[in-house]
Amino acid sequence: MRPEPQPVVESDPYVDLKDFVDSLQEEWLAEEPDLPAQGLPCVARLVRLGYYIARRVDENFERFGLTRGEFEVLAVLVRNPEADITPKILQTKILITSGGLSNRIKRLEEKGLVVRLPDPDDRRGVILKTTPAGRDLTLKAVTAHMRVENDFMKGMPVEKQRVLAQLLKELILSQQGALNLNGLR
Q1: pLDDT at 14 > cutoff 80
Q2: Which of 20, 43, 108, 167 is the most buried (most CB within 10 A)?
Q3: What residue ranges do the domains of the chain occupy?
Q4: How wide is the angle at C-alpha 95 spanned by C-alphas 91 and 98, nearest 5°?
Q5: Is the pLDDT of residue 155 over 60?
Q6: Please, what sign has the CA dihedral across residues 173, 175, 178, 184?
Q7: What is the fold, at CATH topology level, of the domain defined by 41-147?
Q8: Phi, psi values for residue 130, rounded to 5°
Q9: Tally of CB atoms within 10 A around 67
Q10: Closest CA to 119 of 78, 75, 89
């Protein structure tokens, strides 16, 4: 009698490898075995991954003469060309204080990438719009940014990317209330 063929299981090349976080957790638990370290593997990896991502994203935007923060402002305006985006609305779309936002807007204005228009509903208020140069630069930068993101994820199968995206979404949504960030996305 012939043995039944075994299903082919795609092996995960990373499952048995150790990383910095594995060592970190082992060292802490060796020193303090009762340490409540169950969150450490995920959070430490997210922090580390955040550093790697920020570095590559920042390097990419530098090629366009932009900071990540400046790009965030431009991206909101370019994605919403028909909307009247005020600084207050912009602040709800990106994680930034009003003072930091004012500085970003000022720098973008100086670069000729955004303009402030009078807000017809508020005499003291302004509506922000991109200039044609700002729109063109943003579209070039976002295309390059998407390439960086895709390149970053290319080592992970698409189905795992979907699962990871869902898990990260759940984690973010679970934290928004605790951080009082309900209006931010």
Answers
A1: no
A2: 108
A3: 41-147
A4: 45
A5: yes
A6: negative
A7: Arc Repressor Mutant, subunit A (1.10.10)
A8: -85, 150
A9: 15
A10: 89
